[in-house]
């Protein structure tokens, strides 16, 4: 009847479909959808979610009546996303840029909040006896959901709910079931999901890099995780585990004289595993991947050559993962120990601009062992040893010299 008030709908909103959710889990069907942006196919582990979540109307809300003569009303714009901390700022930037590697490297060293299951043993953590994983069923799949801040947690559950906080890299080490998937910050621009096979593959890869070995002291699982069907990168061939890992560090041209002429035999600062840098065969590639573009850098992207030190690390405990930040507040947020100038990230990875995810370590002035090499890498992609350290005479012998 004209002039009457439309009755409120009695049916609940339809459950979300896969194409109506930005993370594929835990979001309601939107009232109106925005045009989807172009989809970029990527062979990476996962695709960070970049679309903002929308809210379905409550059952008590009345739809707005429209007539043929009424002008269409545009849906209200979503408020801009506000990251709750530095981790979410980095995740958001990576998602907006479509950089899976940056998203992944940030998430690996982040702390996440996970709701505690009602029947989990009090005070238990992932991997502990009595710990019950808070699995939920979403779209016919079993998920474990975690959040990178109390604000993201409050978006989906009671903010007063009991939670356990754990580093993501250690959480995935205890992964309970290959068939379970993982979701972080579902329904937000800093959300993503990973199948269980990729979680286990990522955990194995992180373990190879030594990530998470020095944090929180959580017990290791008694049973090895099943081998993943796919892994983030090709597994390294099995080698002699009794042999030390070879490390590498780029040295400035101004330092060459100290080594070759004065017999300098120490190394300090940020270093990397030589095996992970083997594909970086030019000065420009190393410059980009290692973040050598900091202010007052002695390196140049168009250099004709670059010199690197390579040596076996006989005392791995001296090579620490440099958790920290660019200021004291950022260092505390990471619960780290290092403050460095930009482009330092403080998450255990080299601050490169490319797609490489390279583990980074920091060492405080250790002596190089006998046989350490000084190598020149040319812009043509070739390399040759220049000198070898003789620890007995404390001198560098040029290659070919007797």
UniProtKB/TrEMBL annotation:
Composition skew (Low complexity), residue ranges: 1-11, 48-72, 222-238
Residue ranges with Pro residues bias: 73-82
Pfam families: SseB
Segments of skewed composition (Acidic residues): 212-221
Annotated InterPro entries: SseB_N
Region listing for Disordered, in residue ranges: 1-85, 212-239
Domain (SseB protein N-terminal) ranges: 89-199
Name under which the protein is recorded: SseB family protein
Domain of life of the organism encoding this protein: Bacteria
């Amino acid at each position: 009847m004209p002039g009457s008030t439309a009755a409120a709908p009695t049916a609940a909103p339809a459950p979300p479909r896969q194409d109506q959710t930005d993370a594929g889990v835990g979001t309601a069907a939107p009232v109106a959808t925005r045009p989807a942006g172009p989809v970029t196919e990527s062979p990476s582990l996962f695709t960070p979610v970049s679309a903002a979540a929308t809210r379905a109307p409550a059952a008590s809300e009345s739809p707005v009546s429209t007539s043929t003569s009424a002008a269409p009303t545009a849906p209200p714009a979503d408020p801009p996303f506000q990251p709750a901390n530095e981790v979410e700022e980095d995740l958001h930037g990576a998602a907006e840029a479509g950089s899976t590697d940056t998203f992944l490297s940030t998430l690996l060293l982040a702390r996440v909040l996970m709701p505690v299951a009602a029947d989990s043993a009090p005070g238990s953590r992932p991997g502990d006896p009595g710990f019950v994983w808070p699995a939920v069923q979403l779209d016919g799949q079993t998920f474990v959901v975690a959040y990178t801040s109390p604000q993201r947690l409050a978006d989906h559950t009671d903010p007063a709910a009991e939670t356990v906080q754990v580093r993501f890299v250690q959480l995935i080490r205890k992964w309970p079931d290959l068939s379970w998937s993982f979701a972080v910050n579902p329904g937000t621009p800093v959300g993503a999901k990973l199948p269980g096979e990729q979680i286990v593959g990522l955990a194995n890869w992180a373990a190879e890099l030594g990530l998470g070995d020095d944090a929180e002291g959580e017990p290791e699982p008694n049973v090895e995780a099943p081998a993943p069907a796919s892994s983030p990168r090709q597994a390294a061939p099995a080698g002699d585990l009794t042999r030390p890992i070879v490390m590498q560090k780029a040295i400035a041209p101004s330092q060459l004289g100290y080594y070759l002429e004065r017999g300098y035999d120490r190394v300090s600062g940020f270093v990397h595993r030589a095996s992970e840098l083997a594909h970086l065969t030019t000065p420009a590639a190393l410059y980009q991947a290692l973040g050598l573009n900091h202010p007052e850098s002695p390196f140049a992207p168009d250099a004709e050559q670059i010199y690197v030190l390579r040596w076996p690390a006989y005392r791995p405990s001296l090579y620490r993962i440099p958790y920290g930040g660019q200021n004291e507040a950022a260092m505390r947020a990471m619960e780290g120990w290092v403050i460095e100038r930009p482009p330092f990230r403080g998450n255990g990875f080299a601050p490169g601009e490319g797609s490489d995810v390279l583990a980074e370590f920091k060492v405080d002035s250790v002596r190089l062992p006998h046989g350490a090499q000084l190598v020149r890498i040319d812009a043509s992609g070739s390399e040759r040893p220049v000198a070898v350290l003789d620890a007995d005479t404390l001198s560098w012998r040029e290659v070919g010299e007797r």
